[in-house]
Amino acid sequence: MPRENGRFLAAAAPCVLTVFVFVPAPSPVVVVVRPTAPALASALAPALASASASAPVPAPVPTPSLTPEDLHPAVWRAHQVARVGDSVLPSHFAELDAALPGGGWPARALTELLLPHPGVGELRLLAPVLAAVQQAGRSLMWFDPPAAPCAWALGALGLDTQQLVVVHGSSPGVGPASKLQRQTGERRWGRGLAGAADMLWALEQALKSGHVGAVLAWLPPRLPAETLRRLQLAAQGHDGPAFVLRDVAARSQASAAPLRLLLAAAGADALSVNLFKRRGPPLAQPLLLALPPVLSPSALARSLRPGRRQSVVPPGEVPRQVSYSNSVGQAEELTARAALNLHRA
């Protein structure tokens, strides 16, 4: 084969198929083929195969396998509890933390607590996380509580009233409920929607401000779904827990809150918690939590006296309003007096 300028040049006669093989000094073989003669192409097949075998083959790039929940933090499987991440605060109740997505109360989200009446133990349930927020140097804001908070009782729960701001609407009737109002339920859940407009506006602005550690709001019983959506959007920018408390009748209503709990009294110092909405499957059975005791030993003994009826909510049922005529109601009334300073007229 003739050599020209350091390269090999091969020409097939009678020039039906022309093959040029250029071999520069350490470069790989480059073959240009114009197939017009099948016989000559088959004769050169071994040379072409050896040249392609000597060329390096790039290694395949491994493709990481992604699961649906890896695509976005808000995506989760229906049979699994969602992974919220670091934006959670422990509730300091082991059974509840194990059932909550992320292992605690969520920040940047609205948490809705449904109660048959105020004073079932909701403040004792939230006191540990509220105290942790205050210990971090952040303040609390309560919106339209059903009664004036008792500083002594809050101090016994570990809360600092110097870091607590209570906000009421501008409508009349603000303050502890009278006996007639408690009997009719008029002040059980604050004022009507028209009178709560100022309070709802202040609540939304507090969530958007970023200067509040934790928020508690007692909402009116009849609230449009649009209002809850606005509060949920505002809570997404709030770096802390946001709790709204509503009447148990709102369970059948649509809510934008990603976490909804149904609370009911299960004894003098026990609370039934039903997580019927969370980012994951609902709980099959309600949780029974032991609350910090607030009753004296003698009062607790009277509430647990044989023959007294204890009210425990069956799984899946809506708890009825506990009457103050039974022992559980009396114990919870004392709890409400201690935590919210409810006094009979």
What shape does the CA trace take? elongated
Number of helices: 11
Order of strands across the main sheet: 9-8-10-11-7-12-13-14
- Structure summary, number of beta strands: 14
What's the CATH architecture of the largest domain? 3-Layer(aba) Sandwich
**CATH topology-level name of the largest domain:** Rossmann fold
Mean pLDDT across all amino acids = 74
Largest sheet, strands/sense/barrel: 8 strands, mixed
Poorly predicted ranges (pLDDT <50, ≥5 residues)? 3-17, 172-188, 310-345
Could you please describe the fold and organization of this structure?
The protein is of the alpha/beta class. It folds into 2 domains: 52 residues, no CATH class; 247 residues, P-loop containing nucleotide triphosphate hydrolases (Rossmann fold, 3-Layer(aba) Sandwich). The protein is built from 11 helices and 14 strands. The strands form 4 sheets. An 8-stranded mixed beta sheet has the order 9-8-10-11-7-12-13-14, with helices on both faces. It has a two-stranded antiparallel ribbon with strand order 1-2. Strands 3-4 form a two-stranded antiparallel sheet. The termini are far apart. The N terminus and C terminus are likely disordered.
